[in-house]
């Protein structure tokens, strides 16, 4: 058996599979990743765009960045990798999809119950009354305000230095602990706590399989590292299931 056939048979036999995705899964939908060639953080300082302090200092600059990203993902389409993962959940006994991505392309491809560790670009939260609103499909003004209390709205994403939504984090950890197999796709595995899920799987005796264009800090520690494009590898795996 070649590596792809081996991975497909491990997925099928695992019973429960948890998947952790990063920006690389959306790269072939035209959404820039954060690091590497053409990454969002190339030429931009994340500390001036993706922290609560940055927002307090210059909310207009932060909203300009996030409104641009909202537009980008609204125009984008799910790619064959997103669609293959939706197919996985139809073919496998139990699949839990955990994503670091905020573009909702997994959901648009048909994946359900996606655990969004870092929130998403479509929800906004009021800095005054903390209410959350789904503003999908709307073009937001440069400084959107809460209809209820008039205070500034902020993007519904998790910024550097902020903790993940506790319910999301607990659900992700539980899913990793319960699954004998974790499939890690398109993440540089350098941002915690998300990247820590790999260690959680390994410490619990689970197998870890990685799909990435290039080696990452976890590549040497995983059971199988498939090198290539997620949008090419995942459909082949889906067909083999
Ligand atoms: N197929 C598979 N992997 C790919 C592809 C592709 N077509 N294109 C890029 N990659 C890989 C890159 O090799 C890299 O390892 O995807 C990874 C993208 O890494 P990052 O840009 O660091 O994105 P991610 O790991 O999701 O970042 C984690 O950092 O800035 C924060 O909150 C942000 O959720 C994000 C977190």
TrEMBL record:
Pfam families membership: SIR2
Cofactor field: Zn(2+)
Subcellular localization, as worded in the UniProt entry: Cytoplasm
Transmembrane regions listed in the UniProt entry: none
Binding residue positions for NAD(+): 22-41, 100-103, 186-188, 212-214, 230
Annotated substrate binding sites: 66, 69
Enzyme class: transferase
Active site feature: 118 (proton acceptor)
Free-text cofactor note: Binds 1 zinc ion per subunit.
Positions annotated to bind Zn(2+): 126, 129, 146, 149
PANTHER family referenced in this protein's UniProt entry, alphabetically: NAD-DEPENDENT PROTEIN DEACYLASE (PTHR11085:SF4), NAD-DEPENDENT PROTEIN DEACYLASE SIRTUIN-5, MITOCHONDRIAL-RELATED (PTHR11085)
Cited function: NAD-dependent lysine deacetylase and desuccinylase that specifically removes acetyl and succinyl groups on target proteins. Modulates the activities of several proteins which are inactive in their acylated form.
Domain remark from Swiss-Prot or TrEMBL: 2 residues (Tyr-66 and Arg-69) present in a large hydrophobic pocket are probably involved in substrate specificity. They are important for desuccinylation activity, but dispensable for deacetylation activity.
The name this protein goes by in its record: NAD-dependent protein deacylase
Species whose genome carries this gene: Singulisphaera sp. Ch08
